[in-house]
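Entry 14. Ran structure prediction on the chain below.
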Amino acid sequence: MEDIRTATREDKSRRAFRVFFIPFFATSHIVPAVDLAWQFAARGVDSTVLITPANTPLVRRTVDRAHRAGLPLRLLTYPFPAAEVGLPEGLENLSTVSPSDEEKIYRATNLAQASHDHIIRESRPHAVIADVWFPTTVADDLGIPRVTFHVVSIFSQCVMYSLLKSRAHDKLAGPAADSTPFVVPYLPDPVEMVRSELPVFLRRPNHLAENIDRLKKVSQSAYGVVVNTFYELEEPYVDLYRASECRRAWLVGPLSLLYGRENEMAAVTERGGDESSASNEELCMAWLKTQAPASVVFVCFGSWNHFSEEQLREMALGLEATGVPFLWAVREEHWERATEWAPSQFEKRLAGRGLVVRGWAPQAAILSHPAVGAFLTHCGWNSVTEGVAAGLPMITWPLVFDHFIIERLVVGLLQVGVKMYGGFRSTLREEAAKVVVGREVIAQVVARFVPGVDEEIEGMRRARALAASAKAAVEGGTSYRDLNSLIEGLMSYRAGC
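Output, structure tokens:
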């Protein structure tokens, strides 16, 4: 009876504990932030996600499902400063604006701070977990613990912080400097990079270069940081990070694995999709049921990608030439120009063997489907953690920011992936646009993941071992303990005030 009373007291205490979550204006930041809020709510914490109106549909179904499950998870909307930054009403997400307007989204982060400060002052939550782009230092003034949420990997952060400190990439000279390999210093492993594949902020001035020192200081002065990863995935880099960058770092991933079993498949399938996405869910799941186990290559480049018509055409013809079943998620913006790049009767020729999905696809659910045997990915961190959780080998096609760094982890250190292309690549859009990966290269690499060879597929055994580690981490292991430790630590902070 004493145990029951104690549990009841703890449950009531957590329900009275309120935490605000503030994600950045990008799908790749919003979805994992809501995943994290769900986990807090599942442990009885009153969890509120601050979000702008046009981004609400991305997570509305997830929040509604939480309500039906009796979880204290809700949304609180605040205005996006569209007029102030020169964007039309309704464009509030990095994934929905044109490349020329991306800077306006970043400018909006500074302007949104006033709304965040007002809400925090008025509502007085007991803790704030905010994206690294939102310092929310008003919490410090109010004695409220603030935690920084990182959606990039620990490995990437270690590489970027090392280069900020050493400027090793700036010591290269000559006409081939951008493509000359160099070893990143201060790391546990010999990691080679080339300057052309570094995040833009390390190569020339941009919004992040102008703010990186401030953002790093704000993050280091926070109560701590929380990251969508698990200890066993990046072990030596977690140890380095905790020793040199942030002593208090809680690793709580893969977040896509953390939904309760009774809600798991539906919740995972709905992540990031609005009400209009249901038809795509049904289409993908129905088609996958017709495919042999581990036979399908899933092709998806995340919520942010911009390919030329020529590259899209080569991609289409390359996938067709493999003879391998594939499911390809194509951005709506790309499909609207399909007459300019899609081969004649492309879908008709592929009937039964290939499926092209327009717009959003339920990525985590697709990856975990038994028919899927490999993942062609841009190496965004959310996608990589979902691929790891599913136990899939990956074909890497990095595009921007830290994707090329993550590729080094996937291909070089974890050895669960292969590169799509080994020639010159760049994070600068004007340079990347000049490179077209040909259909022959695409067909040759994808065809290596043919169905029927099971354990002999490159990286399959290692990928399955990582998936087992990921599952163990969230089911009573390191991530489970870190998540509970974070909640208990924040509650103790409140009790001590």
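The chain is about 45% helix and 15% strand. Will compare against last week's run tomorrow.
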